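Crash report, auto-generated. Payload:
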Amino acid sequence: MTSASDAPDHGFRLSQLIYDTRYRSLTIQVVTLILVMSAFWWLVNNTITNLTALGKPINFGFLWNRSGYDIAQYLIPYSNDSTHARAALVGLINTLWVSTLGCLTATVLGVFVGVLRLSHNWLVARLMTIYVETFRNIPVLLWILVAMAVLTEITPSPNAYKVNPTTGEAANSMLLFDSVAFTNRYTAIPAAQFDRSLGVIDTPLAPISLNFLAIAVVLGASIWVNRKLLARAAKVQDETGKRPVTWWKSLAILAGPLVVLLVALGFHLVEPELKGFNFTGGTNVSNSFVALWAGLSLYTAAFIAEIVRAGIMAISKGQTEAAFALGLRPGRTMRLVVLPQALRVIVPPLISQYLNLTKNSSLAIAVGYMDLRGTLGGITLNQTGRELEAILLMMLIYLALSLSISGLMNIFNASVKLKER
Amino acid sequence: MTASSQRPFVRTNMLAPEPPPTAQTGLVKWLRENMFSSWLNTLLTLAGMFIVYYAVTHFYPWFRHGVWNAASLAECRQIIAAEFGEGATGACWAVIRDRWTQYIFGFYPADLFWRPVLTFVLMLVAVAPILFQALPRQMLWFSIIFPLVAIWLLWGGSVWPVAMVAVGFGLGFLAMRLLAPIGVMLGVAAAALTAVLFWMFLTGPIDDALSKVVPIALEPVESRNFGGFLLAITLGAGGIAMSLPLGIILALGRQSDMFLIKAFSVGFIEFIRGVPLITLLFVASLLLNYFLPPGTNFDIILRVMILVTLFSAAYIAEVIRGGLAALPRGQYEAADALGLDYWKAQRFIILPQALKISIPGIVSTFIGMFKDTTLVTFVGLFDPLKSIPDSIRADFAWKGTYWEHFLFVGAIFFIFNFSMSRYAMYLERKLKRDHR
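Recovered output after restart:
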C-alpha cells in the first residue's frame, strides 16, 4: 500500500485525494463515514416519522406497568401484579438457567462421546459416529420438538402412578428408588429441604436463601484450601522429587466440611408423592423446560464431541510416545501431556458452542418455556404493542449476555493457552 | 555320505507352514483386538450391543408394521390391529403419502407445481458448473442469470420487471468495464450509479410499454403460499448466494488498515453474532417496515431472506477472517513486491488461498443456515418442520401423528446437510496442494 515515489514539490491538487496513496485511505474512510451516517440518519428519520404517524413515540415507560400475565416457571418471586420489567427479568433468569444447565450437560456428554468416538472399539466408535452425524445434520428445533413429543405423548399421566388398591400395584412405577417420575405434564423430582434452616434474606431483586449461601461459602473455602494443599504438594515434589499422597486429604477437605454443614442444617431430600391427581412434596419440573434442556444439550453435545475429537487428534502422536518413553502410564500421559495441549485447541471453538447454545435457547418459544424471548419479546410485546422498544431491549440483553460469556471464556482461554514470552 | 544313510529319517522337503492359532486370525483376532481387548472395552462393547438390541427390538416392529395406504390415523390403527394383533404399534406413513405435496410446496397452487419443480431442476443445472470444475465454463453464464429466472418462475407475474433488473445489472457492468481502466473505484461508483439511475427513471416507462406490446406473464403466486421445503430451499439458496460475497467483503473490512472501515465491520459482525437469529427474524417481520419510508411494504420472504443473509454473512466473515489470518505474512509481502494493487492482490494471491483454507467452515455455516431456515415458523411462514406438521395435525384425520413427521423431515434435512458436508470434504481434498 505504500509507494516509493517522491513527494511532489508543487502544491496540493484535488486529484491527489484519489491517486495519492497517502490521502486515498483518508478519502475512502470519509466517504464511508458519510455514507454510513446518512444511511443511519435515513433509517432513524424513517422510524421517527413512522412512529409519530402511529402515535407511539419511543418510550420505555411501559416496563413499569403491571404485566397482568402469569408465567408458569419462575425462579424469583413473580405474579401477574408484577411489572413488565420484572417479567423480563424472570425471562432472563430462565434463559440463563436453561443455558447454564444445557452447557454443563452438553459438555459432559460431548467430552464423553468425543473420546468414545476415538476409541479402538469398533462398535462404540460407530455408534458415536451415528449419534454425532445425526444430531449435527438435523435442525435443533426438531430435537426440541421430539423431546417435547416424547415427554407429552409417551409418558403416562400422573394418575398412572396411582397404586391400585385391589392389586396393590401401580400401572407405572417411579424411577431411581421411587424418587423421579416422568409424566405427560411435568417431571417430579425430589426437593431439597433443610430442617434447621437459616432462613432467607429478602432483597427487592430476589430472596437469597442463607442455606445455599452457607453451602456456597463452605464449598468455596474448601476448594481454596484444597488448592493450597495441592500447591504445597507440588512444591514438595519440586524440591524432593517425591509427591506426597494427597488424595485422601483432598477428599477430606472437600467433602468433610460440606457434610458437617449439611447435617447441621438438617438437609434431606423430600421425595414426590402422588396426592390426588398430582405429585406433591417434591419439585415438579415442567416438561417444556426438560424438553428444551434435553434438545439443546443433545444437539450441542454432538458439536462439542467433534471439537473434543479434533482437539485430541491435533496433538501429534510423538507427544504420547515421548510421554511413554519417559515412563508415564497411559492415564498420566492423558492427564499431564495430551489434555493440557488439547485444551488449547478445544477451548476457543467450545466458547462459540456455549454462545450458540445460549442463543438457541430462544427456541424456548417452540415448547412454551418462558425465557426472555417468551416474556419480553413475546407476551409483553404483544400486550403493549411496543415492538421497537421490546425487540431493541431484547437484542441488547442478548448482546450483553453473549459478550459477557465470551469475555469470561476468553479469560479461561488465556489461562490454558500457550504462554509465550 | 554313508553316515547319513544310517540315520533313520531325514526330511527332504519343507513342511507347509501351520495355520496360525484361531485366536490370532480372522474374525476372532479382529474381535479380540477391536471389541474385547480389555475389561473396559468389553464393558463398552456389551453396552453398545445392548443399545443396538434395544433400538432394534423397540423400533423395528414399528417400522415393519408401517401402513402406507389409509385415509386417517384411525384407519391406520385399524389396519395395524387387524394385521398384527391388538396392541401392536406401527408407523402411519399414509400421512406422508397423503400430504407430501404440502411438505414440498406448502400452499403453492397445485396446477402450478411444475414451476417450482422446473426451478429446482434449473437450480441443479446452475449450481453444477460452480461445484464441478470439469463442466464447460460457458455454463456459468446461466448460473449468473439463474437467480432472476428463479424469481420469475417462483413468484410469477410479468417477465419485464425481472428483465429490467437484469438490464440494469448489464448496464452497470458495461459502465464498469468502460471505466475500470481509469480506476477501479471510479468503475464501481459508475456501475452503481448507472444501474440505480436506470432503475429509478427508465425502468417504469420501458416496463409499461413492453408489457402492453409483448405481454409475457405467469400467474402470480403470493409469498404466503410458499411453504415446506420449497420455502426452506428458497431461503437457504438465496441466503447462501448472497451471504458469501457479503461475508468476503466484511472479512476484508475487518482485516483492513483503515480504522473506520475496520470499526464498522467489527461492530456489524459482533452485533449480528451476539443476538439470536430469532430476534433478527422478528426485526424482519415487525420492525423493518418502521425503518423504511412510510407506506413501503415489501415481501415477507424477501425481508426474511435479507436478515438471514446478514446473519450468515457475519458468521462467514469470521470464518474467512480465520483463513486470511492463517496465510503466511510472506504471501501479502510477495503480492506487494510484485506491485499488485490491493484488489489485484486479493483476487489473485490472497483470497484464492484464504477461501480454500476456509471451505470447511464456510460449508458448515451454510449447513447451519439451511437448518436455521426452520426458524421462520415463528414469524408466520410455513416451514417444513413445525408449521406444516402442525397444519396437517389440525386436520382431524391426522391428529396425533408425530413420529412420522419428525422422521420424514429429519431424513430430508439429513440428506441435504450430509451431502453438503461430504461435498466440502471432496473439495478440500481436491484443492489440497501441499504434498504429504
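Post-recovery validation: Strands of chain B lie at 157-158, 217-218.
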